User: Fold this.
Amino acid sequence: MDLTEIASGLRFPEGPVALPDGDVLCVELERRTVTRVRPDGSVDVVAEPGGSPNGLAVGPDGAGYVANSGGWGFVRLGELTFTEAFQPDDYSGDGSSASISPPGP
Assistant:
């Protein structure tokens, strides 16, 4: 099977969602963002929910919904990345919810 790399430099991506225009939204745990990847490989941050976003879905209303565990910080040692046992400073854990609208072209 042949694989083609579309984008590089993503920091622990999860929860990819294919959009009708060919773009893909995903969350990046380590970067703490919702990221849009275009077919040409360009990457844009569309939201910064903080914490550890670890899932993404698009609802029937067309809005994006982010699952956020909030439980991981990251530490780099040379070329390796490890998770910490402490919640990141930018996670409030207040139980609130938010949604994002899919970005336009």
